[in-house]
Amino acid sequence: MDAKLYPVSQDWARRAHVDEAKYQLMYERSVKDPEGFWFEHGNRIDWFTTYSQVKNTSFGGPGSPGEVSIRWFEDGVTNVAYNCIDRHLATRGDQVAIIWEGDDPSESKSITYRELHDEVARMANVLRNRGVGKGDTVTIYMPMIPEAAYAMLACARLGAIHSVVFGGFSPDSLADRISGCGSKMIITADEGLRGGRTVPLKANVDAAIAKIGGVDHVVVVRRTGSPVEMEPARDVYLHDAAEQVTTECPCEKMNAEDPLFILFTSGSTGKPKGVLHTTGGYLVHASMTHEYVFDYHDGDVYWCTADVGWVTGHSYIVYGPLANGATTLMFEGVPTYPSVSRFWEVVDKHQVNIFYTAPTAIRALMGAGEEAVKKTSRRSLRLLGSVGEPINPEAWEWYHRVVGDGRCPIVDTWWQTETGGIMITPLPGAIAQKPGSATRPFFGVVPQVVDAEGKVLEGACEGNLVIAESWPGQMRTVFGDHQRFIETYFSAYPGKYFTGDGCRRDEDGYYWITGRVDDVINVSGHRMGTAEVESALVAHPKVSEAAVVGYPHDIKGQGIYAYVTLMSGEVFTDDLRKELVTWVRKEIGPIASPDLIQFAPGLPKTRSGKIMRRILRKIAEDEFGSLGDTSTLAEPAVVDDLIANRQNRA
Ligand code: PRX
Questions:
Q1: Which of 130, 172, 303, 407 has a CA 20 to 30 Å removed from the CA of 289?
Q2: Mode of pairing for the β-strands spanning 217-221 and 235-237
Q3: Adjacent-strand bridge partners of 57
Q4: Which residues approach ligand 1 with their CB closer than 6 A?
Q5: Nearest CA owner, ligand 1 atom 12
Q6: What ipTM does this complex have?
């Protein structure tokens, strides 16, 4: 395949932290001498007690399958909040740390590092007065307001482990995630505000607690000011509690391997797992990638449009940028409110230099036409980034030509909740870009392409993507279930971390991520287990069986296609279809709404009763001409019915 090449400009090569020659040297050293490389770069953060051990990691493997253990900088002592705030106070106390842009364009504010310190210290004291200390878990369910970052940093300051739950999740999903990590403290807001509409966050928290109990305290940030129910013995407004405390709050001394946060994410099977990240290695990886991948220089204004409820928000709105003393923009709203020019208006308003978003947003805005972009200046932009799903070359080219006026390199960053930070990406001063390719590995990352049997493929090839060596930001375990960690990531290819992604490597050694090869789908950059949507559907009293697959969707990347079999005696109607969509939204959240539902009198199964998802995927992709071998089906006729009534006609 002949991909277009966008070379690194002279200007970029000169100005960037890393040019091509330096990339080669640093990359080689990072994989040949990881101990030496990370000994040196571990020092980019401040340590209360410096480390003498750098890397102590094992992926198990054929000889020692059970022994997966990952430790970095293990005798070092530090604190993440200290690194993100306190260490900057002497030199940049008055510099803006966070620019907040509200949902309504008339609302914005700037928070300096000194103000950030005071806000975080106060919030930490509020938590401490309610019994939160080192090792406790705290659930954060917040809109995109600065208090969300304060809450994360307040936990880090106390050594508490936060679990941020995306504000779009339903009370049921929230309840699972609260009990999944045993939080006794929840931090939330009265309501969220997105695209002019309110989100009943506090009411959702109340509903979640009513279901599971066990929560002792709820701290409520006033965002919209609407009255909400307050349980006097349990709930307190942050502004009331913060008046009672000071801005003195020392940082807890944390071992490099003490947990920093849990983030629940979807896999192929069962309930979402709690991905656990720890302190030292995570911060080294997040801050180093933020500086090098986005080529961050002092004075730059940097904007990542993600939500703090996802890993991108953790690593690239909060921890990476703040550890680097950067100015990070936090946006409460959506790209299309009040108009489809909003992103670019915000860029102009705050003179944003570095802009990082998801392909789904680019595709949606592309559909709204060039004029909405072109009427803004965007002269401040220097670099564009993409994350969350494969970016199709058409969207890449549009992003480059229209948004960046052909002037800004695009860093397509491949990584995962599990990897903690960016893994494969072009460094903008070093690596020529090809639209649609995440290109080359970051320092210390050893990607390999393997075939189904685990044979490592060489040269240009296609197969599954594994990572052969540990890196500092890697997740350490599944919270409370190390065995699940080993089974999920290290059993398919013993001795290697399996990403769940398919991948092609071209003749230039560039990596092209082709999408998930497991039962995870990626809808608008949001990761979803098909099993989760299926279990929501079968929880409906009229549904007896459901199978969910992804299908190509112009804007979302993948859409959700559900095949549903009803209880006997129930009838398929359009009303029932709508009812099921509403049902799934209520059970999981709006991001899980099925796009297409097909009522299926029967699902294709093997004689042993296993659903043949391969066939369902092909029908959903409208490629029923290539169904492959159907001879093992128990009832081949069901396939004809599914094809005849398919919802996704080309
Ligand atoms: O399939 C890959 C896709 O998103 C998955 C990880 O999802 P999540 O843990 O939610 O993290 C998203 C933000 C880091 C991956 O397994 N993915 C992420 N970035 C890219 C991507 N696919 C292709 N290109 C990317 N740049």
A1: 407
A2: parallel
A3: 70
A4: 265, 311-312, 387-390, 412-417, 438, 499-501, 513, 515-516, 522, 527
A5: 388
A6: 0.99
In angstroms, the CA 638 to CA 630 distance is 11
Q: Which atom of ligand 1 is nearest to the CA of 424?
A: 26
Percent helix, strand, coil in the chain, to 5, is 35, 25, 40
Residue 412 marked in a binding site: yes
One-letter identity of residue 449 = V
Angle made by CA atoms 262, 263, 269, in degrees to the nearest 5: 115
348 annotated to a ligand binding site: no
Binding residue per annotation — 63? Answer: no
* Tokens standing for residue 70: 């990952």
The string of pLDDT tens digits covering residues 547-598 is 999 999 999 999 999 999 999 999 999 999 999 999 999 999 999 999 999 9
In a domain, 537, yes or no: yes
Phi/psi for 303 (5° steps) reads -135, 120
For residue 542, being part of any structural domain is answered with: yes
Q: How far, in Å, from the CA of 358 to the mean position of ligand 1?
A: 10
Atom number in ligand 1 closest to CA 415:
14
390 annotated ligand-binding residue: yes
Q: Which of 275, 387, 411 maximizes ligand 1 atoms within 8 Å of its Cβ, making it the mutation to test the pocket?
A: 387
Cα 281–chain centre separation: 18
pTM: 0.96
Q: State which residues form the domain around 619.
A: 524-645
Q: Is residue 638 part of a domain?
A: yes
Q: Kindly report the CATH number assigned to the domain that includes residue 578.
A: 3.30.300.30
Asked whether residue 367 is assigned to any structural domain, the reply reads no
Q: Over the stretch 287-336, which tens digit does the pLDDT of each residue have?
A: 999 999 999 999 999 999 999 999 999 999 999 999 999 999 999 999 99
